[in-house]
Amino acid sequence: MKHIKTLNTKRLQNTVKKGGCGECQTSCQSACKTSCTVGNQSCENNK
Amino acid sequence: MIHQYKNNGFNIVLDVNSGAIHVVDDITYDIISDYESLDKKGIVEKIGKKYDTVDVSEIEEAYDEVNTLEEAEELFTKDVYEDRVIDYTKRATVVKALCLHIAHDCNLSCKYCFAEEGLYHGKKAELMPYEVGKQALDFLVANSGSRRNLEVDFFGGEPLLNFQVVKDLVAYGRELEKTHDKHFRFTLTTNGVLLNDEVMEFANKEMDNVVLSIDGRKEVHDKMRPFQRGDGSYDIVTPKFIKFAESRGQSRYYARGTFTRNNLDFSKDVLHLADLGFKQISVEPVVAPEDESYALLEEDLPKLFEEYDILAKEMVERHGTDKEFNFFHFMIDLEGGPCVYKRLSGCGSGTEYLAVTPSGELYPCHQFVGNDGFKMGDVWKGIENTDLQTEFKGCNVYSKPECKNCFAKYYCSGGCAANAYHFDGNIRGNYHVGCELQKKRVECAIMIKAATAED
């Protein structure tokens, strides 16, 4: 495309079917302890 | 839902429900603003007036690109998740993470400590006995269902005041891994005062992550993180933390600071830590009642936004150089990030994640410890206050009215229940200052991706 550059290919709607296994890290266990950040976490199934 | 903004010279368009992120030129940015309210003819006319040197065919071409992405469900994508997420949150509860309050005591007297120097509203210092910790790990395994990866955080107070129990519990956890086919990921949070070679060697072998509490510049750190007798801790902990980070190969740790109203120019503290050589940095806003002199207030937001912008631009500058570093709140995984269930179903407090006090009581998370109304049970009898568990289980993006229409909901998962409770009186409420900072951080994180993708 000439006017639009898309940065990522993964789409959230595609995670509906296979997602939800619950094996990923709990948000607060990383560093925060005072907020909630999930966007920076990784999916265990992609490792 | 679309969120579009300009930052550091980039026109960024986030298609909220698909997670697609687009960098667009000026005319496309304006086309997207009007796309849902005007038809093609109306848009071409309006954009043509604004950009009178641009050819009509160029505007039509940009419009068609937007249209193509809409059809591919990468722009203006609908939210189709609500029913599924509500069903998901009704699933059987398993516990997969515990925050073990290994010591309700501390050798520092940090002024912003939500744990009240380790005491958590308790009257006297208390260390967790091995038997309590052992029972906590048994409770975790017994309630973890088919989850293999289990997380245990040694937290306090200062966990190194009870280091022998930490070591004994890790050894017990390793036994449980073999007998129950589980995998423990241990984390140690420390203020560094008692850190020594023995602790580092142990932690490098056993801890998946270590969180090192350091606030940044010496004067900033010492003001908020003094010893009881009043002198600062910077000179004692900093060299040890630098050595520790190096000994872990500059990974699997965070140099973790807190900024307050005393250092609204916190980007300087982040860069101070980066210049000390730390590569994994997390410096986060203090969460404190408004009447505390160091609390962050609504009126501080413009200055804090500016600081995040300064930091983000500096990180772009340092990208690809030996001065590059990670900033936890700007990390965003665009390709391998969590599924939509994880993103919308909340942090897991009170359900998947529980805090355990030194005497074995269970609370929804470390921030509720000591608040009697939030006691859920104990490690011997398990969860007894099932009403409270149900309340936390039902807490997700769709149960929080202010989250529904927020573009950042897929990045913060509805925010922190404890903050919502403390500022809004209700775990389904919102902590407005926290929300505004979170949104700004998401914008900066995406900008960094846009800027570094051009390399």
Nutshell version of this structure?
The complex is a heterodimer of chains A (47) and B (455). With 47 residues, chain A is mostly loops.
Could you explain how this protein is built, in words?
- The complex is a heterodimer of chains A (47) and B (455).
- Chain A is low in regular secondary structure and 47 residues long.
- Chain A is built from one helix and one strand.
- Chain A has one helix spanning 15-18; one strand at residues 4-6.
- Chain B is an alpha/beta fold and 455 residues long.
- Helices cover 41% and strands 16% of the residues of chain B.
- Chain B contains 17 helices and 16 strands.
- Chain B has an eleven-stranded mixed β-sheet.
- In chain B, helix 1 packs across helix 3.
- The longest helix of chain B has 22 residues, at 432-453.
- Chain B is globular, with a radius of gyration of 24 Å.
- The mean pLDDT of chain B is 94.
- At the A-B interface, strand 1 and helix 1 of A face strand 3, helix 3, strand 7, strand 8 and strand 10 of B.
- Strand 1 of chain A pairs antiparallel with strand 3 of chain B, so a sheet runs across the interface.
Low-confidence stretches of chain B: none
Oligomer: heterodimer
Average predicted local confidence, pLDDT of chain B: 94
Query: Could you give the count of β-strands of chain A?
Result: 1
Strand content bin of chain A: 5-15%
Largest sheet, strands/sense/barrel of chain A: none
Characterize the main sheet of chain B.
11 strands, mixed
Distance between the termini of chain B: 29 Å
